[in-house]
């Protein structure tokens, strides 16, 4: 159903089914399509719409029909994620589209959200199907195992999936350690068994100014 055309355009082939996507991200379609704007309410969409810290409103649309839709957003790189009953946690600004059958909700991120200035909640996607997430530059997928926990700069974090626990640590930061100053006030530590997606370009964060 989901396929990439190049690295920055998502093509979704539909045969009467539906897809949920970031509002305004559709760039073209063929066939017969119906569009519905989704704003808050059931299935956890309110968590996708409300950004508690910044007050930014993010709307989601449902596309249903026969044919192909193409989606893109600000020339971001697009990465396909397959879910087989597991759970994906992704920053809402990095979520482009999901199968309509996937359940979306939110999880409280606490300190990480406050340090990033990116909202206090992260979007969750669960079930069987595909999701498309965006990154500034080609995303890197890093493995977390019980023997090898992973520490990530919050400005580079995009998403994680699997049986992964996250915690937050402060102190010496990446940039401060190398004498560059202005580094992140916190780092994210991942433990367990799963995958973490990071981007090669860091977003601006509140902590970066501390």
From TrEMBL:
Query: Gene3D superfamilies recorded for this chain?
Result: Mitochondrial biogenesis AIM24
- Superkingdom of the organism of origin: Bacteria
InterPro entries linked to this entry: AIM24 (IPR002838), AIM24_sf (IPR036983), Trp_RNA-bd_attenuator-like_dom (IPR016031)
UniProt xrefs under Pfam families: AIM24
Please state what the protein is called: AIM24 family protein
Its source organism is Streptomyces bungoensis
């Amino acid at each position: 159903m989901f396929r990439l055309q190049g690295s920055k355009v998502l093509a979704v082939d539909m045969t009467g089914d539906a897809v949920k996507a970031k509002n305004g991200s559709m760039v073209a379609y063929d066939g017969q399509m119906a569009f519905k704007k989704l704003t808050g309410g059931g299935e956890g969409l309110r968590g996708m719409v409300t950004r508690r810290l910044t007050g930014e409103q993010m709307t989601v649309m449902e596309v249903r029909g026969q044919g192909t839709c193409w989606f893109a957003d600000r020339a971001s790189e697009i990465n396909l994620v397959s879910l087989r009953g597991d759970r994906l946690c992704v920053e809402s600004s990095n979520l482009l589209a999901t199968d309509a059958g996937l359940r979306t909700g939110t999880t409280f991120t606490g300190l990480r959200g406050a340090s990033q200035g990116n909202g206090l909640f992260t979007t969750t996607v669960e079930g069987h199907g595909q999701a498309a997430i965006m990154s500034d530059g080609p995303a890197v997928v890093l493995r977390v195992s019980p023997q090898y926990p992973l520490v990530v700069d919050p400005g580079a974090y995009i998403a994680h999936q699997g049986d992964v626990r996250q915690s937050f640590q402060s102190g010496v930061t990446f940039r401060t350690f190398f004498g560059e100053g202005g580094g992140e006030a916190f780092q994210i530590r991942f433990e367990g068994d799963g995958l973490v997606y990071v981007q090669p370009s860091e977003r601006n964060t509140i902590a970066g100014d501390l």
